[in-house]
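(Deposited chain)
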Amino acid sequence: MAKHTVLIVDDEPDLVELVKLTLERMDLATAAAGDLATARRLLGEKRFDLCLADMRLPDGDGLDLVAWIQQHQPQLPVAVITAHGNVETAVRALKAGAFDFVSKPLDLGVLRRLVSVAIRLGADDAGETTRLGPHLLGGSPAMDQLRALIARVARSQAPVHISGESGTGKELVARLIHASGARRDGRFIPVNCGAIPTELMESELFGYKRGSFTGAVSDKQGLVQSAEGGTLFLDEVADLPLHMQVKLLRVIQEKTVRPVGEQREQPIDVRVLSATHKNLGALVQAGRFREDLYYRINVIDIHVPALREHASDIPDLAAALLRRLRRRLGSEAPALGADALAALQSYAFPGNVRELENILERALTLCTGDVIGVADLQLRAAPAGAAPEGDAASIVKAAAAGAGTSGSDLGDQLEHIERDAILKALEQTRYNKTAAARLLGITFRALRYKVKKLGIE
């Protein structure tokens, strides 16, 4: 079997020799070019599995080579070698299509990990194996574009930020990126940044050493280190406090982490994906999110469309969700009637796909016949196209404003308002009651009482 071959593009003989020796010990063949012209000629003459290119070359910029490879050999992973601390250049390279970057002076451990991941990626592209895993339903243009974008970013190691309203499936997109890339054999570690108490966040993310604080009776690995060789998914990253944003920035830039109580930083090999339903740009302007971190995690942006933006996919989504719910129930369940399906397609879905699943689960419980009707859906009375976003407090205000126009019992109306606000808060926090109570501005005990009183559980 032929060896994998790496092209090294650099005009420093000592660095080229160091990289060659390192790669040859990994049983890889190498070729070298000292300038852009020679690199393009070699790329045209033979097949390579990876290109390592310095950013400063005698006849041009390494970004020019990245752009050339993207145009002529887009299947070839290219990693750039940047000056130490030159984060802006690294980000530009990633945006241009570079697979990853490594800083001078070279850390050979980091280089070996980068090369191993790139070679695996090339081997995946050459094969015809299929992988069963999570998938996106729907044949609308919006979903086709989303799938195509996921396939492209899965080849890169650049940080990806996934934006979109609550309930659109941002974590599913992150899992797809992980499952479609070279890191799929590593772990996918999801972290809900809004659900971790501020005082525990550093030790949960980075781990700690024994004796570093009261109660630290043994070493503990953090969530970041748990994702070694795989993917770290930071959900609701906008909820990170400012002091943790500084520490996260260093983790992404330097690819190192320091547990609480440890004096030395430890190298890590983790791809960082993040998501939030909030507008990070607006938070940057308001001083609630660091601008440098924003540009670092937002190298590639993927926007997940709201369900109302691809309503033609609702029949497929509803059918798939009903199949899943039937399997969970372990028996045959009622089918979705034509009138109910029409009602779903005209509904605004402020809670998106997550709300669709909740509606169908409730309908299966309430339906007494063989077909789910409109009445079984119990859709909220909201005009189509109404603004879907907003916190739990806005629901209370909106509902309270409408309460005065109804002739129904005031107590029932208030319970309905409370139920909607609590459900919205629980959905926004992925059913973490501590975070939901904080969002609603009430104590955890008060929320637990209301949940029990209203029969939400």
User: Anything to note?
Assistant: Confidence is low (pLDDT under 50) at residues 125-133, 383-410. The chain has four domains: 5-126, 141-303, 307-377, 392-453. Residues 5-126 form a domain with the Rossmann fold fold (CATH 3.40.50.2300).
